[in-house]
Automatic annotation (TrEMBL):
Chain positions covered by the region annotation Disordered: 26-56
Transmembrane segments: none
Protein's recorded name: C4-dicarboxylate ABC transporter substrate-binding protein
Biased composition (Basic and acidic residues): 37-48
Length: 387
């Protein structure tokens, strides 16, 4: 078992370097095909046997919103479960810190304990189309699309615009992260030549405070709690990243950072235009007869049936962007997830049942209050499906 894990780690490390090199030069899916990166077989995957009740969830850096989402899932699903004679639960979700980029996808394909990961759809699409890791279309499936991840470009006070970063030291994040791969691409597209650093976010922000770094990029869903706390009082501010129609062809979306997202960084009536990308919850396509398949199936059933719980104020606001039934073009959905959605498409009765289970855990006992909450939930769901 140790030898297998060591082999998987070495393979992931080597392949990570190959993928980062090829995608770092990529500015669009079409141009990626022209690069003709070296093709390799998909990494080998061995099933973990140490704990049949724990599913591994690879996410972004510990400071990211994606990690907060994974923690939301882990803590929420841990409650309300029957326990065994020694306190064990049938399903345990274990968040695993990743870099939010290419490495997350490689981890799903190679690490024994990694069953699923939050990853940018754009990077997954490119890995599949270039064939850098072989045919991953049969090894990678999606559970559900999630939300958009915004580009957060922080700068020191003397940097007033994007053009002021030209020739300056700018941290794009660790190699292979969404910030490093896509930030490099965006800056090249905007013809802003910087001196690139690839530090952790903590190190980059510390370097900015000392004047060693002029800017730092993080690609993560807003609001990122760590940024709001760290930047307060340091004179840091967000730079606008202009959006063009050409970016839409490369799967970027327009977005805006507002005062309510970062009240200590953005003024009351101010906002900052930026761009964003979509992310999704991907999973390894375990064979039906494998021991990991029923565990991942249980995860899907539990997450989907308890989804209304994540829409409350106690959870990250990004949950309100999630539409479980949304499709991810070009990818296959994990079969139990598809089956659950088909079963629930029968209508409102199933939704009311799930919503009722959610409210039973709350202090809402007045029927009119329950009905009003359910109608608000239904209107929100209809808006999401209409997007």
């Amino acid at each position: 078992m140790r030898a297998g894990l060591f082999t998987a780690f070495i393979a992931a490390t080597w392949l990570g370097g190959q993928v980062q090199t090829s995608l770092a030069q990529t500015v669009s899916p079409n141009e990626a095909a022209k690069v003709s990166p070296r093709k390799e077989s998909a990494p080998r995957k061995e099933a973990a046997t140490s704990d049949p009740h724990t599913t591994g969830f690879v996410t972004g850096a510990a400071q990211s919103t994606e990690f907060a989402i994974a923690q939301d899932i882990a803590t929420t699903l841990a409650s309300g479960q029957e326990t065994g004679p020694h306190g064990e639960v049938a399903l345990r979700v274990l968040p695993m810190v990743g870099n939010g980029g290419i490495r997350n996808i490689i981890d799903i394909l190679s690490l024994a304990g990694a069953d699923m990961a939050i990853a940018p759809v754009l990077l997954a699409d490119r890995l599949r189309s270039t064939g850098t890791l072989g045919d991953i279309g049969n090894k990678l499936v999606y559970i559900t699309p999630l939300f958009v991840e915004e580009f957060h470009l922080l700068a020191r006070s003397e940097i007033k615009s994007l053009s002021d970063l030209a020739g300056k030291r700018v941290n794009l994040g660790e190699e292979g992260s969404a910030g490093a791969v896509l930030g490099r691409e965006v800056l090249n597209h905007l013809q802003v030549k910087v001196s690139e650093s690839n530090l952790t976010l903590d190190s980059a922000l510390d370097g900015m405070r000392k004047g060693q770094i002029s800017g730092a990029l993080l690609v993560s869903g807003k609001p990122v709690g760590f940024l709001a706390r760290y930047a307060q009082g340091d004179g840091l501010h967000f730079l606008s990243i202009p959006y063009s129609r050409e970016m839409l062809q490369h799967d970027y979306l327009p977005s805006t950072l507002r005062h309510e997202d970062y009240p200590d960084i953005i003024g009351d009536s101010d906002s900052v235009d930026t761009i964003a990308i979509k992310c999704a919850l991907f999973a390894y396509n375990w064979p039906i007869r494998s021991e990991r398949f029923p565990l991942l199936e249980l995860f899907v059933q539990t997450l989907f049936s308890r989804f209304p719980e994540f829409l409350g104020d106690g959870h990250h606001p990004k949950w309100r962007e999630v539409n479980l039934a949304a499709l991810l073009p070009g990818w296959r959905r994990f079969r139990p997830a598809e089956r659950w959605l088909q079963q629930q498409s029968g209508g409102e009765a199933a939704l009311r049942k799930a919503f009722g289970r959610f409210l039973e855990q709350k202090s809402i006992s007045n029927p009119p209050d329950r009905e009003q909450l359910f109608q608000d939930f239904m209107r929100w769901r209809e808006r999401q499906q209409g997007r």
